[in-house]
Design brief:
The structure holds two protein chains of two kinds. Chain A contains three helices and twelve strands; from the N terminus they run βαβββββββββααββ. By secondary structure, chain A is of the alpha/beta class. Chain A has two domains: about 1-70; about 95-240, Pectate Lyase C-like, CATH 2.160.20.60. An eleven-stranded mixed beta sheet of chain A has the order 1-2-3-4-5-6-7-8-9-11-10, sandwiched between helices. In chain A, helix 1 links the parallel strand 1 (about 1-5) and strand 2 (about 30-35). Chain B is α/β, with parallel strands linked by helices. Chain B has two domains: about 10-95, 2-Layer Sandwich (Alpha-Beta Plaits); about 115-500, Alpha-Beta Barrel (TIM Barrel), CATH 3.20.20.70. Chain B has 16 helices and 21 strands. In chain B, the strands form seven sheets. Chain B has an eight-stranded parallel beta sheet with strand order 9-19-18-16-15-12-11-10. A three-stranded mixed beta sheet of chain B has the order 6-20-21, with helices on one face. Chain B has a two-stranded antiparallel ribbon with strand order 1-4. The chains are: A alpha/beta, B alpha/beta.
């Protein structure tokens, strides 16, 4: 296991050091004192584990393909942007566009997330990306979603607080969103409908809850104690009739 | 759609029965169902309403029996309520949809290329004969180092993070056309021709098909808002990575590749499920400012370990000069600007015909702005959008471009007749279709040869024009507006283009 002190390092220097270590066979790397350095893990293809202490900057794990990253702190915008494979575990909150256009891999977030999370998420052959959020989500959750799964848990939700913002899943045309409890129908985009999860969904949710609970030292039974609402698109071609041919 | 349209057909197909040998080639090859055969009566007939005048039947008829005529306007001529307006209104009354079209703006806006003339040497400085003397068309794309006086440490970092320059043997590249919007055969033709000639083709936003990675060294790989087919292998395989912000044919809007065109192969390249619409949102959701653009540029550079120059493509819009300056400062290595004549596989007609500005004015404005700011030499400027001939290319370079992208001209070389129906996927020429029966009409070997010929012809013409001006390197022409003169342009236009009027001396 290697340790890198990221204090005062420019992101280009830090990322080059990370790449060099991984290229030379390092399979477990701890980054200390990370403070806003961007693009950590961007385009990295190795199978390795990266532990981040502090707050990584924007586009953490962008275009990533295989790494496991665990962040002991918050993360910023664009976590897992266009990610292909790998796992990201965040012991705090993340900001906007987490998982933008993510095609594969998994992101687990203990806290809340910002706007447009899971936007344009995709699925492809055996790739089925997953984002699990412990807290609340901002507006446009799952916008333009084309595949994969979003799971929103709303744990420790203060009374009167909504689990998701407005315009949930506008333009969604693939994949499924699972929300623990209910979501106000007025907050849903017109392209989606709320349905009850199937038995297969319940099985999958149990596995997801178990894994989530494991990462963050929670009890899976408590997470599963409330029933989930499933959101699916009406149609995989939401704009098919818009044009005059 | 109602069975009866209020509008009569736009074209009439006339068959000379004396010449027709009933080989039925026209029936088999018409992509739009305009040519029909009634086996019971052994009779050929046409459904004129289906004809788009793509000229496929005319071209392949072995006896020359077919002619297509444009029908006279359906109503009495009207300078304001033109036939186009009437047809569009009728179509929308019948369908309630957004009007769609293909290829570039076909409206009679001024073409500044046609109001610009080139210089030549006479007596006082000799012209050069490119047949006998060396003439350099090779162009290097990418970022040049900043002048000295940088902060300590920055210089070293800049050296480590400078992306390599990319040479092209002629200042002409093939512009972005995605696999999905065009057929695999057309895409392969472009890739082969680019490799053989030593220039670049551009994948567009639909990824690079797995069997064409051999050509990736000549590929500009695009990253658009839908991020289709974008992954580390793709980025690292290409020679240049291009962030597509906008397209000249449809500035400010995204694109929908309809589910019908998402065949198994297209889906595999885009890395999406078969048959779903491929929606490209209008903005990149991680770019809301120049600062955000900088982050995507450096995300891509980090992901490719600073081995790939990053280009940013925008459409030519009113504020293009300031935006280009921002792009240069955001760390892009190449700025690509697409003018309002640029083609497309599908765009809403109103956007295509009414949004954006001519590329000539955009090149001049951007080049001037970057020069005024002292950063023009740091970055390459690629112009796109309606280059019809080598003369247009030379004029664009004299206005300030480093190189140009051509796409419509390339498709015409492959057989396109500009029927503007690319969005239907029915292309009779095998270009804008995913139907194997149609696409196999285009042989990629022949296609590549035709494209190579076009590049060869244009390149030689460019050398002739350069030689005539007494210049032996394309680099000496770049931004050399003294070699241009305007004809019939007003003072504002001359000032914006930075050229004198014909008749004015140096």
């Amino acid at each position: 296991m290697e340790t890198l002190n990221a204090r005062s390092l420019h992101y280009q220097v830090l990322n080059e050091s990370i790449r060099n270590l991984l290229d030379n066979g390092c399979r477990e790397l701890v980054l200390k004192n990370v403070n806003g350095q961007r693009y950590i893990g961007a385009g990295v293809r190795q199978q390795a584990r990266l532990e981040i202490h502090g707050v990584p900057g924007n586009n953490l794990a962008a275009l990533m393909d295989g790494l496991e990253i665990e962040v002991f702190g918050n993360a910023q915008d664009g976590v897992g942007n266009t990610m292909n494979d790998g796992t990201v575990i965040i012991h705090g909150n993340t900001a906007d566009i987490t998982g933008y256009s993510m095609r594969g891999g998994r992101i687990f977030i203990r806290g809340n997330v910002g706007y447009r999370v899971g936007i344009h998420m995709k699925a492809f052959q055996d790739k089925n990306p997953l984002i699990v959020i412990g807290g609340q989500a901002g507006d446009f959750f799952g916008e333009y979603m084309a595949g994969g799964n979003l799971v929103l848990l709303g744990l420790d939700l203060p009374p009167g607080e909504a689990i998701a913002g407005n315009f949930v899943a506008t333009g969604m045309h693939g994949g499924a969103i699972f929300i623990r409890g209910q979501v106000d129908p007025e907050r849903l985009g017109k392209e989606v409908k709320a349905v009850a999860p199937t038995a297969a969904d319940q099985q999958r949710l149990q596995e997801i809850a178990g894994e989530f609970a494991g990462y963050f030292n929670l009890e899976a039974e408590k997470i599963l104690a409330r029933p989930f609402t499933k959101l699916i698109p009406y149609n995989k071609r939401p704009y098919g009739t818009m044009y005059a041919y | 759609m109602p069975a009866l349209s209020l509008m009569p057909p736009e074209f009439s197909i006339v068959r000379d029965e004396n010449k027709c040998v009933k080989c039925l080639a026209c029936v088999r090859q018409c992509g739009f169902g305009a040519q029909q055969y009634d086996a019971a009566d052994d009779r050929l007939y046409t459904i004129d309403a289906n004809c788009v005048n793509c000229q496929r039947c005319v071209s392949i008829c072995p006896t020359g029996a077919l002619t297509i005529y444009k029908n006279p306007p359906p109503l009495r001529p009207h300078a304001y309520w033109t036939e186009n307006h009437l047809r569009n209104i009728a179509k929308q009354a019948e369908t309630g949809g957004v009007l769609l079209t293909g290829m570039g703006n076909d409206q009679p806006f001024p073409a500044y290329f046609d109001r610009l003339l080139l210089n030549a040497s006479q007596v006082t400085n000799p012209s050069i004969d490119p047949l006998r003397e060396p003439m350099e068309l090779r162009t290097y794309l990418g970022r040049r180092p900043e002048a000295g006086g940088m902060m300590e440490g920055r210089e070293e970092r800049q050296a480590k993070t400078r992306t390599p320059l990319v040479p092209i043997e002629t200042p002409i590249m093939f512009s972005a056309m995605s696999y999905g919007s065009i057929s695999h055969e057309a895409f392969t033709s472009l890739a082969r021709a680019a490799k053989e000639f030593g220039t670049m083709f551009n994948t567009g936003e639909g990824g690079l098909p797995g069997d064409l990675y051999d050509y990736a060294d000549h590929a500009v790989v695009q990253v658009a808002s839908g991020r289709f087919g974008v992954h580390a292998d793709y980025l690292n395989a290409g020679r240049i990575v291009e962030i597509k912000i906008g397209q000249g044919a449809k500035p400010g809007i995204g694109g929908h590749l309809p589910g019908e065109k998402i065949t198994a192969a297209v889906a595999a390249t885009r890395m999406i499920p078969e048959g779903t619409d491929a929606l490209s949102p209008a903005p990149h959701h991680d770019i809301y400012s120049i600062e955000d653009l900088k982050q995507l540029i450096f995300t891509l550079k980090e992901a490719t370990r600073y081995q790939k120059p990053v280009s940013v493509k925008i459409s030519a819009v009113h504020n293009v000069a300031a935006i280009a300056s921002g792009i240069a400062r955001a760390g892009a290595d190449i700025i690509a600007i697409d003018g309002f004549r640029g083609g497309t596989g599908a765009a809403p007609t109103m956007i295509r015909d009414h949004v954006g500005i001519p590329i000539e004015l955009a090149i001049a404005a951007v080049d001037q702005r970057l020069r005024d700011e002292g950063i023009r030499n740091q970055i390459s400027l690629v112009a796109a959008g309606g280059f019809r001939s080598s003369a247009d290319v030379v004029k664009a370079i004299a206005l300030g471009a480093d190189a140009v992208y051509i796409a419509t001209a390339a498709l015409i070389a492959l057989g396109c007749h500009l029927c503007q129906k690319c969005y239907t996927g029915k292309c009779s020429w095998g270009i804008a279709t995913q139907d194997p029966y149609r696409s196999r009409r285009l042989n990629p070997e022949i296609g590549a040869e035709r494209l190579y010929n076009l590049l060869r012809g244009w390149s030689h013409e460019i050398k002739e024009m350069l030689g005539g001006m007494g210049i032996n390197s394309i680099e000496s022409l770049r931004g050399n507006r003294l070699h241009l003169r305007g004809v019939g342009l007003n003072e504002v236009e001359l000032k914006l283009l930075g050229v004198k009027h014909a008749g004015e001396a140096m």
